[in-house]
Design a protein that fits this description.
9 helices, about 300 residues, mainly alpha
Amino acid sequence: MRFLDHLKIRSKFIVVIGSLLVVLLGVGLLSIVATRIIHSNTEKTENAAQLAEKMKNLEIAHLLWMQKLETMLLNNEPVPKKFAVDGRKCGYGSWYYDKDERKLFLETYGKDSLKYLDAIKQNHLDLHTSAKDIFAKWKPRHVGLRDILRQRLADHLSWTIQLQQELYSQQPITVQVDGNMCAFGKWLNTGCKDFENAWPYFKEAMKPIRKEHIELHLLAQKIELAKTHEEKVHIFENEVLVLLGKIREQFGAIITVEDKIIEDQDAAIKIFHDKSIPSKNKVVGAIRDTIVILNKEKEKTVVS
């Protein structure tokens, strides 16, 4: 510091003050830089916490999504009107494909972080596609309907056999001639209406059956009123058996449609077990793993 000895007091003062200002400026700059680093790390930590929370919520959302799908299958419910079958438009998909969200993710976790999200992508799309495949197959079955129709058809086959036996043995006709009083007729006016209200196809299919069922029973009365045995036999063979054949065919058509519904339900349930559940497990597991991995990466970044 000998050069200071040759300076006047004023000059020395200026040099000292200048040096102090330089030191203070340096300290100030370091403080600003440190503050910015701290602020940046704090902001990234907050972003990381928010993103982790968002991913956790998306995991929960897909668990609820699966629960809703399984409930439909277990409870024989109709396909929900609002249900995300497009993996690009559900909560996770909307978040994953959003440019601003991806940018925030990259800024928070670094350029290599998207590989963790990309690992979830296909399984997530597969999960939603499985629901689409299930809905393509799924229709609510009509519990008990097949058994009712088969039983009522068996009743009328027995009715016809009894009528035939009484006719051919020339005994008095004792079968029920009022179509509203047999078991099927009573069911048509009660429980059948519930099925008709729930299933438009069945309601239309039952219209001719209702009419022909009444006609079938009236034919027994017509046979009873016929004058000759030959005329009675003619009515039975050319009207009763023909009409019973038509009713039997119509019952069979309804049962076949219901059989197909149940067959498709079995296929839908198989898709759920073979595709939905494995895809869900992979998606949920990957989301959980990603949250853990990224949080660890974030801790390393903050420490460094």
